[in-house]
Structure formats: C-alpha cells, structure tokens
From TrEMBL:
It comes from Terfezia boudieri ATCC MYA-4762. Residues 50-97 form the GATA-type domain. One of its GO terms (molecular function) is zinc ion binding. It is found in: Nucleus. The keyword Metal-binding applies. The lineage of its organism: Eukaryota, Fungi, Dikarya, Ascomycota, Pezizomycotina. InterPro entries: Transcription_factor_GATA, Znf_GATA, Znf_NHR/GATA. This is Glucocorticoid receptor-like (DNA-binding domain).
Length: 117
C-alpha cells in the first residue's frame, strides 16, 4: 500500500516551490481517509505472528514459499517434512541448548616449542 504525500506535478527542481503535503491541507474526504489510514497503520502491532500456529514469540522468523511469516519451529518442520506443522506440537516454552563454553582458547592445542642446543 502506498500513500501519496505530494501532488504528482509538484517539483522542486529549481522552481523554489515546495510540494504540498496532503496531510497539511484543510480537511477533505481524501485527507480524512489518509489520516485515519495512517493512524490505523501506526496503531497496528509490529510484532509478527506465525501464520501456522499464531505464536508471536520465537528466536527466529522464517518465510514459506508463498512469503507467509512462520515461526522457527513451523518453518523448520515445513522444510523437513514438506507439510505444515501440526498444532498439537505447539508449546509455550522455548527450550535452549546446553552449549559447552570455551575458556577463550581455540580448538587447537597449544604446542610448546623448546629450543634444543
């Protein structure tokens, strides 16, 4: 959806005129419609919702072939099984993995070099 904010013929290329914004004009039916539409858009939630399980909490958002927003679990299930994830598998808890933390050393072992004379 696009909104026009200036008249199509208005140009500022060297003429010294500034385009007139539709929102600054006196009230008109078009102006009122645009104002209501812009207010409705600004009041909409910016949080995505999974099109399959309707969750709004996930560590990663994915999209299906049609471009619909999916949560991580539904997106991975679809990719692996080529069918939508059953709602019966939905949980409210996101499990995290227990990962081993390194103490700052690389995976390679340090080799001590000795000079033999």
């Amino acid at each position: 959806m696009t909104f026009a904010t200036s008249s199509p013929g208005a140009s500022t290329a060297g003429q010294g005129t500034t385009p007139v914004s539709l929102l600054n004009k006196p009230s008109s039916p078009t102006n009122n419609f645009l104002r209501v539409s812009l207010e409705a858009i600004s009041n909409m939630s910016l949080q995505p919702i999974c099109q399959n399980c309707t969750t709004s909490t996930t560590p990663l958002w994915r999209r299906d072939e049609a471009g619909s927003v999916l949560c991580n679990a539904c997106g991975l299930f679809l990719k692996l099984h080529s069918r939508p994830r059953p709602i019966s598998l939905k949980t409210d808890v996101i499990k995290s993995r227990n990962r081993v933390k390194n103490s700052g050393q690389s995976a390679k072992k340090k080799v001590s070099t000795q000079i033999v004379s």
